[in-house]
Specification:
single chain; 561 residues; mainly alpha; two-stranded antiparallel sheet; 5 strands; DUF885 domain-containing protein
């Protein structure tokens, strides 16, 4: 260890880790806005995965020394040190159990990183496109490394799930297309003078996708066809720690999911009466809205409508319920590339805000979109949800650390805030329209279903006696899909995509409701502590400026504000 490194405090150790991590993961560098990362892709091979593990172990050793230094007990150092230790320990537990060698998912995997990084790459100049050209030429090596990891997983008896494999093969069909495919369409946006090079590199990347598709269909898929789709309690607990930043009592969480199901079901029944008088089934009322409710016609028209919704929401909230910096107020509405998973998503701004935060709408081939579903979802993905939190972190990164503002993100914290944001907009009166409020409750219900189905399937728990659905039976993916479909307004295609998502990302989907519970508990504790002096706007801005925290620390930190 160098003399400089030996005198680093925890926040400096954390930021050194980010620097070293970007060296290993150029895709992360692009998301952060690091120009030097623009033309490379990560090494997804077993050797690349081991390099990540070595960096985590070395950083933990350096952190132990840093925590002994004078100054390490300061609150800002202590908070960062706890986050860094928890995140690296959780990451190592997942890596050392071989999970990267079975990483097949319809939403988050090396394969998806290879494509998604191009959607956030700078495209303003010819130099930007030259970097994109070089990066596209690196797609075959990146996918070969990924394939080597999956093959190593097979040799070690670590198979991915067969449902995930089937879904990914279907996604690859769409990415490859019949003509130029996704990479070809993306390259066609480049400058004319680079077009020939870009077209050749896009063809190389598309060929690599086709080769991976063939290998998954002909070799990997048959080898895992009898593997279980669910992961069991031990693997689930590791993944749950990774996504939630705490060791959950999974049986208590499962029971909480059911209690939220029953609470929301009763509330939805009452709200449905206001949408369709006489309706006792809330999903009948939602089907009525699908046919007769307010809609946006056209994909581009919907993108523009969502942009206007976010801009209007910022104008309404700023100065009243939040105090927003000018650069945080900028957020863009985008349409997700074809072949994406069904759920909308958000990408954070680059560290210098040259690329703003963006929301992404997968269209799934649709051109007509119901407003009742869009509004609450964009409060979640955009404003005041993911965008206000993650952009605020970047804005105050100088007071935190680079790590706390970016890489240290804990899914349950962020998803919990975004779900809290949906509820907040209802509390503030933005969902006075009965259809929009029923849509918000439907979105809340979906997150309760995730807790029940995700934990129930993977742990193969028994469905309780108070369930209106197959009481006493044990959960299977088939029952999970049926239950979800019966209590959700989304399309069959969406529900199918969600099921595969849960199977491929165990423990992630439960963080929405459990994270929201933590945010509400922290707010309630702060309100009790301050009494009539409690200032919600002040609390919101202080909470959004804490940076990343796991659920182990979130309630405590929020309660102190």
């Amino acid at each position: 260890m160098s003399d400089i490194a030996s005198h680093q405090l925890p926040r400096q150790v954390a930021d050194s880790y980010v620097h070293d991590l970007v060296e290993l993961d150029p895709a992360l560098g692009t998301y952060l806005g690091v120009p030097e990362s623009a033309d490379a892709l990560p090494d997804f091979s077993p050797a690349g995965e081991e390099a990540h593990a070595r960096l985590a172990r070395a950083t933990l050793e350096r952190l132990a020394g840093a925590e002994r230094l004078p100054g390490a007990a300061a609150e800002e150092e202590r908070r960062c040190a706890r986050l860094l230790r928890e995140r690296l320990t959780a990451d190592l537990a997942v890596r050392e159990s071989g999970e990267p060698l079975r990483a097949v998912s319809n939403i988050r995997s090396p394969l998806h990183t290879v494509r998604s990084v191009f959607t956030v790459a700078p495209t303003q100049t010819a130099d930007d496109w030259s970097a994109i050209d070089r990066r596209m030429r690196g797609v075959p090596a990146a996918l070969e490394g990924y394939r080597a990891s999956l093959a190593e997983g097979l040799s070690r008896g670590l198979p991915g799930g067969p449902r995930q494999v089937t879904a990914v093969i279907a996604q690859l069909h769409e990415w490859i297309g019949k003509d130029a495919g996704w990479f070809g369409s993306f390259a066609a946006q480049g400058p004319e003078r680079l077009r020939a090079d870009l077209d050749r590199s896009a063809a190389v990347a598309t060929t690599a996708l086709a080769e991976l598709r063939s290998w998954l269909a002909d070799t990997y898929g048959p080898a895992v066809q009898d593997a279980p789709d669910v992961v069991g309690r031990e693997r689930y607990a590791r993944w749950s720690r990774k996504w939630n930043g705490t060791d959950l009592d999974l049986d208590e969480a499962y029971a909480y999911g059911w209690s939220e199901f029953h609470r929301l079901h009763a509330e939805m029944r009452s709200a449905a009466e206001k949408v369709l008088p006489g309706a006792t089934d809330p999903w009948k009322a939602l089907r009525h809205l699908d046919e007769h409710g307010e809609h946006i016609e056209g994909v581009e028209e919907t993108r523009v409508w969502l942009q206007r919704l976010m801009d209007e929401t910022i104008a309404a909230l700023d100065g009243v319920h939040f105090e927003l910096a000018d650069r945080v107020k900028r957020v863009e509405s985008r349409i997700a590339p074809p072949g994406s998973a069904a759920a909308p998503y958000y990408t954070a701004p680059s560290e210098d805000f040259s690329r703003p935060g963006r929301t992404w709408l997968p269209t799934l081939g649709e051109t007509r979109f119901p407003v009742y579903d869009l509004v609450s979802t964009w409060y979640h993905e955009g404003v005041p949800g993911h965008h206000l939190q993650l952009a605020q972190w970047v804005h105050v990164a100088g007071r935190l650390s680079r790590y706390q503002a970016t890489v240290g993100q804990v899914s349950a914290n962020s998803e919990g805030w975004a779900l809290y944001a949906e509820r907040l907009m209802d509390e503030l009166g933005f969902l006075g329209d009965p259809a929009r409020r029923l849509g918000c409750l439907d979105a809340q219900m979906m997150r309760a279903l995730r807790v029940v189905v995700d934990i129930g399937m993977h742990l193969e728990l028994r469905i309780p006696a108070h369930s209106p659905f197959r009481p006493g039976e044990r959960w299977t993916p088939e029952l999970g899909r049926e239950f979800f479909g019966l209590h959700c307004s989304r399309s069959a295609e969406f529900v199918d995509s969600e099921l595969v998502r849960y199977l491929g990302m165990p423990g992630q989907a439960i963080g929405y409701k459990l994270g929201e519970r933590a945010w509400l508990a922290g707010r309630d504790a702060a309100r009790r502590a301050h009494g009539n002096a409690f200032d919600l706007k002040q609390w919101h801005m202080a909470a959004l400026s804490l940076g990343a925290l796991g659920l182990d620390d979130l309630v405590e930190e929020l309660s102190r504000l």
